[in-house]
């Protein structure tokens, strides 16, 4: 802005020919200045995106997230999603939480939005979850709290494919869904990083909601592990109206999950 005002000052003190020359020069310099500023902004955005490393599967996760189990494996860079076209919902999701990514949080309210990696027939809409007959809420499978270090990561957790319908009581209960999120936060602060594999279970003829007939899960489990520290804990929560319980009441033997 200051640079532009200087050129204006010079401009009004010159003759017609000189004015034209100075104006052309000023526009050329301003264009280069804006180009440089744009490049600087682009580098900042790239650096922000690279704060996270792309999620990689492993032999254990491959047992669950594979082409046999999934209609499509959605690689969202920050997490892997095993999606089922018939259920119009996810079966398994795998993500990693790192301690240093919890330090900075973007406080921004976002809305769920369609997944461009799925066709309209394969996916759900936000309207499917609103005022459904079971009074359930749409929740993020991969919690947004763990990916709010930059805006792109945060937005990735609000894609419709990263959501399931959960009873309101479970969503808001500090000892169930929120309880597990808080437990994961404590663990990552202690261990430095943790891996989380989420399994969503459905009956053979699941309940459905919305005009797109989105399958309602019977329950979900989480395997929280860190191989370097030989740590593995597993939890199962049934998707139903139930009395508040402490987190340890939901803990189960991990072998029961693997053998399911």
Q: In words, what does this structure look like?
A:
This protein is an alpha+beta fold and 260 residues long. The chain has two domains: 2-48; 54-258, Extracellular Endonuclease, subunit A (Extracellular Endonuclease, Chain A). It is 32% helix and 23% strand. The protein is built from eight helices and eleven strands. It has helices spanning 2-11, 16-49, 59-62, 126-129, 151-156, 168-172, 177-191, 254-258; strands spanning 72-75, 79-84, 89-98, 136-140, 163-167, 193-201, 208-209, 214-215, 219-226, 231-238, 251-252. The strands form three sheets. Strands 1-2-3-6-9-10-11 form a seven-stranded antiparallel sheet. Helix 1 packs antiparallel against helix 2. The protein is globular and about 45 Å long. The N and C termini lie far apart (66 Å). 28% of the residues are buried. Residues 2-12 and 29-48 have low confidence and may be disordered.
């Amino acid at each position: 802005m200051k640079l532009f005002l200087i050129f204006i000052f010079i401009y009004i003190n010159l003759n017609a020919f000189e004015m034209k020359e100075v104006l052309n020069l000023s526009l050329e310099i301003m264009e280069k200045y804006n180009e440089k500023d744009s490049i600087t902004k682009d580098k900042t955005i790239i650096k922000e995106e690279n704060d996270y490393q792309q999620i990689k599967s492993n032999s254990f996760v491959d047992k669950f997230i594979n082409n046999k189990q999934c209609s499509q494996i959605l690689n969202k860079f920050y997490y892997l999603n095993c999606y089922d076209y018939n259920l119009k919902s996810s079966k398994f999701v795998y993500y990693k939480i790192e301690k240093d990514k919890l330090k900075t949080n973007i406080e921004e309210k976002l809305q769920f939005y369609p997944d461009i990696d799925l066709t309209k027939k394969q996916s759900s809409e936000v309207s499917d979850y609103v005022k459904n007959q079971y009074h359930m809420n749409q929740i993020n499978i991969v919690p947004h709290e763990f990916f709010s270090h930059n805006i792109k990561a945060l937005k990735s957790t609000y894609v419709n494919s990263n959501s399931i319908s959960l009873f309101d009581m479970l969503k808001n209960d500090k000892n169930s869904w929120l309880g597990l999120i808080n437990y994961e936060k404590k663990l990552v602060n202690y261990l430095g990083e943790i891996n989380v594999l989420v399994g969503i279970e459905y009956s053979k003829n699941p309940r459905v909601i919305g005009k797109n007939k989105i399958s309602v899960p019977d329950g979900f489990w989480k395997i929280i592990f860190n191989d370097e520290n030989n740590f593995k804990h597993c939890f199962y929560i049934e998707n139903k109206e139930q009395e508040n319980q402490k987190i340890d009441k939901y803990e189960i033997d991990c072998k029961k999950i693997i053998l399911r």
